[in-house]
């Protein structure tokens, strides 16, 4: 059963106490499993007890597309972009096991009342976990439908206590040459930094993912936590975040530094604005043969178009 804003959950669906407690216990297990990933040196085969998975509130938030078949897990873990581990689609699955995700912490700095550090054990307990089925549209033209596990990014942002000067927020990925071989090579201006306007980051669709498919995030998909902004091209969602920095001016990001004409700051999915080297009108869902039409804001226009009212869409590519 899926719910949207137009179709809110009936009172009977609001989390009962038993489920809430099961979820809390899952949170603890999630923390424990992250630790286990390091101990075993294997971040791929982690599973969670099925009863705990079944109890997550699940939300389908792709209102403009009735075809919401989830992309197979095996595909999503084996085809992706994590350039710190190499340029090919299978570089992440081949090389990301080198990354140690425990211990892990996130430093918060810049325009905040006080700089601080969050440890992953605390981050997983900040807010109740929920599952969000979102479409991920990569700027290169492929897409996937992924059930993420996590909570709204706003929950973390609020606890960072940004000051009134904080107009933008940067997310920095880990860039450790010991663990991430390609950060030794200046193929991109490392570290991988992506950024959002504060109101985008606080939007209820913006998500902090700690898992997917009912499991802890595999390393190659951005363990132990990543940003997911479903109405933007996938590159806006930094993986394996180690720093959150609040700033007053619109910052440069890894992609605006690398190629400003190809990758704008906003990068909202827009089928009418081609990339300089290819059209963005169509996409191919991983595992499918035929292409399908790309939707404005990746299908989330009803919920997010208002964020850009009055702005020229050519400036929000
Ligand atoms: N984050 C980091 N740190 N490094 C990356 O190379 N690639 C981005 C984004 N986040 C990337 C990243 C791009 S281009 C996409 S499309 C998505 O991650 C891919 O996510 P997936 O591999 O989990 O499908």
Biggest sheet details:
8 strands, mixed
**Helix run count:** 9
Q: Roughly how many Å is the radius of gyration?
A: 19 Å
| Oligomeric composition of the shown chains | single chain
What is the N-to-C order of secondary-structure elements (H for helix, E for strand)? HHEHHEEHEEHEEHEEEEHEEH
**CATH superfamily assignment?**
Oxidoreductase, molybdopterin-binding domain
CATH class: Alpha Beta
Word description of this protein:
With 317 residues, the chain is of the alpha+beta class. It has a single domain, classed as Alpha-Beta Complex (Sulfite Oxidase, Chain A, domain 2). 20% of the residues lie in helices and 21% in strands. The chain is built from nine helices and 13 strands. It has helices at 17-40, 50-54, 73-78, 91-95, 120-123, 153-159, 198-201, 254-258, 301-304, and strands at 58-60, 105-110, 116-119, 130-137, 142-152, 168-173, 193-197, 207-212, 215-216, 226-228, 241-247, 282-285, 292-293. Strands 1, 4, 5, 8, 9, 10, 12 and 13 form an eight-stranded mixed β-sheet that branches. Strands 3-2-11-6-7 form a five-stranded mixed β-sheet. Strand 4 and strand 5 (142-152) form a beta hairpin. It is globular and about 50 Å long. The protein starts with 16 loop residues before the first helix and ends in a 13-residue tail after the last helix. Residues 1-54 have low confidence and may be disordered. The structure holds ligand MTE. The site of ligand MTE has 18 residues, from loops.
Topology record:
Blueprint lengths: L16 H24 L9 H5 L3 E3 L12 H6 L12 H5 L9 E6 L5 E4 H4 L6 E8 L4 E11 H7 L8 E6 L19 E5 H4 L5 E6 L2 E2 L9 E3 L12 E7 L6 H5 L23 E4 L6 E2 L7 H4 L13
Parallel strand pairs: 1-4, 2-11, 5-12
Antiparallel strand pairs: 2-3, 4-5, 5-8, 6-7, 6-11, 8-9, 8-10, 12-13
The site of ligand MTE has 18 residues, from loops.
């Amino acid at each position: 059963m899926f719910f949207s804003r137009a179709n809110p959950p009936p009172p009977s669906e609001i989390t009962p106490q038993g489920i809430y407690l099961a979820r809390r216990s899952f949170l603890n297990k999630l923390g424990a499993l992250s630790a286990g990933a390091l101990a075993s040196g294997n971040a791929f085969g982690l599973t969670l007890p099925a009863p705990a998975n079944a109890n997550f509130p699940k939300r389908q938030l792709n209102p403009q597309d009735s075809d919401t078949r989830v992309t197979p897990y095996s595909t999503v873990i084996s085809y992706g972009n994590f350039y710190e581990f190499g340029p090919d689609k299978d570089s992440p699955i081949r090389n990301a096991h080198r990354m140690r995700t425990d211990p892990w912490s996130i430093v918060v700095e810049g325009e905040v009342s006080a700089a601080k550090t969050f440890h992953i054990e605390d981050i997983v307990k900040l807010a109740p976990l929920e599952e969000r089925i979102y479409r991920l549209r990569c700027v290169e033209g492929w897409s996937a439908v992924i059930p993420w596990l996590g909570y709204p990014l706003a929950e973390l942002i609020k606890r960072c206590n940004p000051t009134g000067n904080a107009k933008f927020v940067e997310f920095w990925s880990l860039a450790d040459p010991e663990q991430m071989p390609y950060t030794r090579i200046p193929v991109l201006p490392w570290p991988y930094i992506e950024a959002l306007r504060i109101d985008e980051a606080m939007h209820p669709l913006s998500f902090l993912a700690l898992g997917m498919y009912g499991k802890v995030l595999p390393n190659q998909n951005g363990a132990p936590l990543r940003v997911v902004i479903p109405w933007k091209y996938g590159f806006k969602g930094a993986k394996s975040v180690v720093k959150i920095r609040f700033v007053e001016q619109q910052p440069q990001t890894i992609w605006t530094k690398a190629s400003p004409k190809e990758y704008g700051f906003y990068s909202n999915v827009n089928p009418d604005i081609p990339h300089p080297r290819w059209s963005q009108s169509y996409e191919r869902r991983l595992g499918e043969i035929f292409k399908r039409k790309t939707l404005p804001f990746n299908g989330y226009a009803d919920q997010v178009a208002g964020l850009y009212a009055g702005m020229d869409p050519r400036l929000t590519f």
